[in-house]
Amino acid sequence: MIDYSLLAFFIFSSIAIFGSLMVVFKKNPVASAFALVAVFFSFAGLYALMSAHLVAALQILVYTGAIMVLFVFVIMLLNQDLPVEDLKSSSPFFKAVSGLGVLVLVYALVRVAILARGMEPKGSLTEDKIAEQGGNVKLIAESLFSDHVLPFELTSFLLLGAIVATIALAKRKNVAGGLKS
Amino acid sequence: MIPDIQPMKPWICLSAGILITLLVSVIRTESKRPAQISALLTLAASAVFGFSGISAESQVLMSGAFEVSSLTLVSLSAMCGLAAMFILGTGHYLSREKIHISDYYHLLLILVLGASVLVASRNLVVTFIALEVMSLPAYTLAGFRRNDSRSNEAALKYFILGGAMGAVFLLGSSFIFGATGSLDISEVFSQSGAGSAGSLLLYLGHLLVMVSFLFKVAAAPLHFWKPDVYEGSPTPVSGLMATIITSAAFISLLRLIHLVDFSPASAGAYLDLVRSTIRVAAMGSLLIGSMIMITQRNLKRMLAYSSITHTGYLLLGVLGSFDPKMEITSVLVYLLGYAAMSTGVFVLLSLSKAPSDSGTELIDLTGLVKRAPFLTFLWSVFLFSMAGMPFTVGFFTKYLVFMASLGGGETGLVIVAALCTVIGAYAYVRPIALMTMRDAAPGATDWEPTIGSQIVAVTAAGFVLLLGIIPNAMIQYLKGIPLIH
Q1: Using omega within 30 degrees of 0 as the cis cutoff, is the peptide bond preceding B221 cis?
Q2: Mind telling me how many Å the CA of B181 is from chain A's nearest CA?
Q3: Contact present, B141 and B233 (Cβ < 8 Å)
Q4: Residues forming beta bridges with residue B121, ordered by sequence position
Q5: Where are the domains of chain B?
Q6: What ipTM score was computed for the predicted complex, to two decimals?
Q7: What is the tens place of the pLDDT at every residue in B16-32?
Q8: Structure pTM?
Q9: How far is B114 from chain A (nearest CA, A)?
């Protein structure tokens, strides 16, 4: 009897790792962007394996749908005739520092994984209880509009602030010696 | 099920005011006046609601995420008052710098909303979002002088570092959630004493959360952004950072530090780590702030290093808050006093007609007593208060944090702080000497006292002197305010 979820975990994780490496090493930014799409999809698969189906769906909708389109737009607008930055030509010092940084992060990640191994998930909701009460989507929707209505409403003010801030900084005004185009 | 939101009136009033201000400025696009008036009315209304709501008992609303108590209501009213003072006192500066636009007032109101919710938050998610609601307008306002490259630099630097520190906060709170299964501050507190296998994770998360707030208040070694950001930002915005953002971040920092129950023996080693972290941060802020402050020629950079020093003094009060447990009077008194003198100083600084690309230097103050005697008097009041002279509020605030810190057994640190006060006094007295004992240097800029700014500065000076001569009323009032109910 093969454990299919374990098999799926390895498939999705290897796609994610391979895709992440491609994001970094591909010289063509569009190729990097598409590798990132693969990473996002495999992440959605990993979330689904953890029974977080709503997060998996949102991952595809928000990241692969909305955010990737933004990425591609930015690449389209910025990448006109710029010389391609070649990682091989960067200084050995930079390479050593970033390599060391990656090693430290990997070590920290492994340590945290070992540390967290014996720990049980806390909180009142288990997988069975979630299924009993109508599934992820219903539970999240209910708690979003009852227990967590304050952060939810506060987020709308954050977005409002972001919109006003963007317009205030980006709009062009006829000020003396100012930005005018 | 409709939650009872009646006690949240001041915050709801503020939120509604933001939307009204936005609508008003859309209807009358050609003038900034309606937005200004709407912002002032909003701040006044929520301050009135805040003051009238103060009562002895406190309430916890929104499933434990939001606290309406004397601490949060007093903070909200004080923040509204400070923002209104800056609006009244610095309109001329905004006009001169050509940034007098409606957007300024929306962002200012959103900043106040974020700061006042941050103070009231009892939940790590709400704390994070409130922190962002407060910071995002601050990043933008720092870059409002769009034609000045230093303003752009300030905004970008503040944004990138602030964003990175927001990520540190999130990492820390996810560790805390992993260890305790809760984001509610009182629940984390009650579970943290158990000494379970997750303690290490909890302590790591707690440390990260604390570090992200130490960045917000610019404690050494996370202070390096402050001089550049203060220098590049428009002067009223630097003032808002020194008053509203510092106060909100400090009150929230106190809450988060006392998030962990330090009383069981297993937490003793961690308590030592927290104390020594704060001790190092306090000592570093005091030494770096006061040493570099005396070398500065630019007034705004000098005030930035001065605020780093004040962060050091405030951290002394935080150290005192461990023992006796959660006694925070000294920090609250210090925040109130510091807010009053910073408001005065930054409003006065905004009167300088120095071209914004060079900034106001110490030399621009020379001979001010002959040119504007009243301004010289106001400057002297605030600078003496910052130095900690008797008969100003600065003396009692310093006295209280020293006493609190001595009560916590930090004798060595208090000696360092006293030495730094002496070093700092040189930096504060030098501008006064330049104003009164020297003739105006050639090329010293003019100062342009306007009615509004003078009223605001006189109010702040009155506050500084009144509380310096009779501080007991304020201290008694703030003594009754507990940190966590």
Answers
A1: yes
A2: 5
A3: yes
A4: B66
A5: 7-479
A6: 0.89
A7: 999 999 998 888 767 78
A8: 0.87
A9: 8
